[in-house]
UniProtKB/TrEMBL annotation:
One of its GO terms (cellular component) is cytosol. Belongs to the RbfA family. The lineage of its organism: Bacteria, Pseudomonadati, Aquificota, Aquificia, Desulfurobacteriales. InterPro entries: KH_dom-like_a/b (IPR015946), RbfA (IPR000238), RbfA_dom_sf (IPR023799). Keywords: Cytoplasm, Ribosome biogenesis. The keyword Iron does not apply. Gene3D superfamilies: 3.30.300.20. It comes from Desulfurobacterium thermolithotrophum (strain DSM 11699 / BSA). Signal peptide: none annotated. It comes from the Bacteria. This is Ribosome-binding factor A. GO terms for biological process: maturation of SSU-rRNA. GO terms for molecular function: ribosomal small subunit binding. HAMAP family: RbfA. It is found in: Cytoplasm.
């Protein structure tokens, strides 16, 4: 995958996943969760989504909820993105939040 296309896809994924988290997924009301970064696999079939939150406990709970809803999130991404291969998300806590 060319680098320019890869960067555009990463930007698009951050925007769409943020929108899905805000509208479609039931996260705890007091949890302020954001997408810190995404890493796309070389073939574009997987995306690692780095989640950040104000509290470490909120980040852990959000990652658990989001990883359970991976299939649903992948389905929504497939509807929104016009791609041949829609990347399957995997949610992890951002390394800076682990301290």
């Amino acid at each position: 995958m060319r680098e320019r296309r890869r960067e555009r896809l990463k930007s698009l994924l951050i925007r769409e996943l943020s929108d899905i988290l805000r509208i479609e997924i039931d996260l705890p009301d007091n949890a302020f969760v954001t997408i810190h970064d995404v890493h796309l696999s070389k073939d574009g079939s997987k995306v690692t989504v780095f989640i950040s939150a104000l509290k470490k406990e909120d980040a852990i709970k959000a990652v658990e909820i989001l990883n359970k809803a991976t299939g649903y999130i992948h389905h929504i991404l497939g509807k929104r993105l016009k791609l041949k291969v829609v990347p399957r998300p995997e949610f992890v806590i951002s390394p800076g939040d682990l301290l």
